[in-house]
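Order emerges. For instance:

***
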Amino acid sequence: MRSLGLETLGRKVMDLAEMLGSAALMLKSVVFWLFRSKLETGEVVKQAVKIGVDSVTVTALTSFFTGMVLALQMGHSMKNLFNEPMYVGTMVAFSMLKELGPVLTSIVVAGRAGAVVTAEIGTMRVTEQIDALYTLGTNPTRYLLVPRYLAFIVMLPLLTVFADFIGVLGGCLVAVVKLGVPVTVYKSDILTYLTISDFMHGFLKTYFFAFMIATVSCYKGMATKGGAEGVGKSTTEAVVTSMVLVMVLDYFISAALVAVGI
């Protein structure tokens, strides 16, 4: 029984090592074709629309109501402590710009756009369309992966900035209507205490998240096998893995940025 357990553990370790090695080789190919070939501008724009523009609505809804509930909770907490809803704008802005904006936007994009990317590439893999690209003399990495990487890296930071603004706006609505905080006070709290480094702290993290989501989604798509069932399995694995890694990376990237004073 113990031998069987060790064998199972060893097999899982080997599978993990093989997966990491394959992902590393894929990244090497992406970097090579990114700088050594003509950019597929049309495909980049197409993927940017799928990943960024199509995610605007769900991102706005998520951020708006997150900002609203932050203002509501913070305002009532301050009332209980100081009998006044103090620094609501500051706390909403800090929370959205440094943490909730980047993390929630990345999770939304991973769940919506990451699933789409994995399903598209996975379907092409199981229907042998990727093999057909090789036959036609087109490298799949250059045509499929590079545009999706660029689209993620460009669109996720832009979506995050949009989410930050919408979240702060939602908090302002609750602060004014529910808590009786004047707009000028809410705005003053933000401008007085918020600095550019607070914005950059959250903004810089989105590039790491975008790169990670693109890597997981593209790798899971390229590694798909087993027909339609395999596509569904790969899509689920890509979404779950991306969401977990967003939370894990968030801590380590935040620690690194704090260490360098951002």
